[in-house]
Amino acid sequence: MTQRHLLDIPSAAYQAGYSTRYFRKIIQEDRIPTVEIGRRNFILASDLEAWSSTHGEARLDDFIKQLDRWLQEEAARTPEPVPAWDDED
Length: 89
What we know:
This protein is of the alpha+beta class. The protein has helices at about 10-15, 20-30, 45-75, and strands at about 5-10, 35, 40-45. The chain has one domain (about 5-75): Arc Repressor Mutant, subunit A, CATH 1.10.10. It is built from three helices and three strands, in the order E-H-H-E-E-H. A three-stranded antiparallel β-sheet has the order 1-3-2.
């Protein structure tokens, strides 16, 4: 195994589209294998790719659905804009 096939956690998080802190949580929850070298953890690029094609896409879909629900709820709570009452006809 060579270093070019390893990604540090911040790089893997960036590629996956998450913050480093949140991606560390994902690593634990989804049991993504890591390799410890010294005091740092790394992810094999192939493991990140495998996770992305299975769990990663599902997580992103769930996140988008949740964001859409939040936006719809916020839109329902926000009153409609008042039309401009200009003197021009």
